[in-house]
Amino acid sequence: MSTLESVIWHILGYAAMPVIVLSGFAVVAAISVWLLSLGKDKGAE
To answer: pTM to 2 decimals?
Structure first.
C-alpha cells in the first residue's frame, strides 16, 4: 500500500469514530424524546 493510500485509510478510520459515536447518541436521544412525549401526551389534560 502506498503512502497516500495509508494516509487516506487513516483519515477515514479516525473520521468514522466520532461519526459512529455522535450518530448513536442522536438515535438514543431521539428515541428518548419520543418515549417521553408519549408519556406526556397521555397525562396532559
So the answer is: 0.58
Identify the three-state secondary structure at position 7: helix
Cell readout for 14 is 479516525
Residue 40 φ then ψ, to 5°: -70, -40
Residue 1: partners with Cβ closer than 8 Å, 6 or more residues away: 9
All cell numbers assigned to 7: 494516509
CA distance 15 to 12: 5
Q: What average pLDDT does the segment 21-43 reach?
A: 88
Q: Return d(Cα 33, Cα 15) in angstroms, integer.
A: 27
